[in-house]
Amino acid sequence: MSVITVFSGIFCKEDSVVHEIAGSTSYRLITDKTLVGDAAGLSGMAEDKIERAFSASTSVFNKFTHEKERAIAYLRLALAKTLSEDNLIISGMAGQLIPKEVTHVLRTCLIADLKFRTRVAAEEKGLSEKEAVKLIHSTDNDRAAWVNHLFGIKDPWAASLYDIVIPMDKKDVMEATEIIKTNLDSDAVKTTESSKDAVKDFLLAAKVEVALVQEGHTVDVKAKDGAVKLIINKHVLMLSRLEDELKSIVNTVPGVKSVDTKVGRDFYRTDIYRKIDLEAPSKVLLVDDEREFVQTLSERLIMREMGSAVTYDGESALDMVSKDEPEVMILDLKMPGIDGIEVLRRVKQTNPEIEVIILTGHGSEADRKVCMDLGAFAYLQKPVDIDLLSEKLKEANEKIQQKKRQKG
Q: Domain total for the chain?
């Protein structure tokens, strides 16, 4: 039997179609929510962090944490494990991760014109035309970014990605269901020994990718009959040393018979390969209105393998806390608008797990007491010795990691 993937634009009757197929066949429905939950269980990452991989909006810290790449690696592993079964309907964005070598997959796309989708949005959600158009454009942007990330194709509805593209403004739910069920009878999507082997290769590649991300590495992985190929797409000065390290990790994965490495098409671009240092803080938010000082500080932290982002006022800092969830903040006290003490108070109310280091040139002993009472991790004066600040950051990171270990 086969596997069906359904990738759809929002308000294109996807839920109705997949439930109709599931109800009239023996196929089990697997959604993005299912796979996100499985990936979270495998990785220990929060479900919302896994789910964000589907979004066009990437965290400002991602170039340091590779959180999106890590989430996708665990989604691949969850999906590859699921594909050990047949008779599946995989509905959502994760189905795009199945490699083309797995041929017993009927890849289906549901899409419709904007007029149809706005009408469905009004019927199903009670949205106005303006609200519907905004939501449709936003979710289409997510799908376009997802497809572009995986395939380098900007059109998420490109016919080359699918076996069937069904225009839902021209077909009703029952007609769409029958089209899909009819195509399931095609010999092209029947399970074969070759396709089963491709699932095994997919699972091994996913296990290798996870083994690498657990050690801070992100490279493309291919597998065929136990032979693993690693593709390095960012420039690295000591390539042979990196290759040796990657091979030593991959050779510990059960089922790997050989490991080969090569540089990919993007290797000679300006991006530099960066292994994630899991012991160093990689999500540090610097908040200070002295632009030259804070930019220099950010650069000095990056040189010490600590990922940092910068904001210049309290309001922007609070906005970034809500969107990007830094782990450590370095916070000035005297800023226009919302001052540092108020930022500290609000952060500790909404995100108490964030460790806050006060770094100020104007504070008093009274300010120090207030900050420490509010839960600041440390209170430092400008000018600060960069080694002392680095040590405090590492201590804050260790406290955070210890809490995570106690929870999980």
A: 3
Which H/E stretch holds residue 288? none
* Beta-sheet strands, E only, within 249-288: 258-263, 284-287
**Which among 301, 319, 298 is positioned nearest to 309, based on CA atoms?**
298
Q: Is the peptide bond before 383 cis (omega within 30 degrees of 0)?
A: yes
- pLDDT of residue 278 exceeding 80: no
> Which strand (E) or helix (H) includes residue 140?
helix 129-151
Q: Model confidence at 54, in pLDDT bands (50, 70, 90)?
A: very high
The conformation of residue 189, written as its DSSP 8-state character, comes to G
Domain of 255, in residue numbers: 193-263
Query: Do 130 and 171 lie in a common domain?
Result: yes
Are 240 and 220 within one domain? yes
Cα dihedral 63→157→160→151 (10° resolution) = 0
Strands (E), 304-369: 308-311, 328-331, 355-360
**Edge-to-edge strands, sheet with 284-287:** 308-311, 284-287, 328-331, 355-360, 378-381
The type of residue at 387 is D
Q: Is the pTM of this model over 0.85?
A: yes
How far is CA 214 from its chain centroid? 15
The residue type at 205: A
Residue 208 has pLDDT above 90, yes or no: yes
The one-letter amino acid at 266: D
Tokens representing residue 263 in the block: 């540089």
SS3 content of the chain, % helix, strand, coil (to 5): 50, 15, 35
Per-residue model confidence as pLDDT tens digits over 346-365 = 999 999 999 999 999 888 89
Q: What is the DSSP string of 77-137?
A: HHHHHHTTSSSEEEESSGGGGS-TT--SEEEEEEE--HHHHHHHHHHHH---HHHHHHHHH
Number of Cβ atoms within 10 Å of the Cβ of 209: 28
pLDDT digits (tens, 9 = 90+) for 382-397: 999 999 999 999 999 9
CATH code of the domain in which 34 resides = 3.40.50.300
Backbone phi, then psi, for 330, in 5-degree steps?
-110, 115
- What are the strands of the beta sheet with 3-8, ordered from one edge? 28-31, 88-91, 3-8, 105-111, 164-167
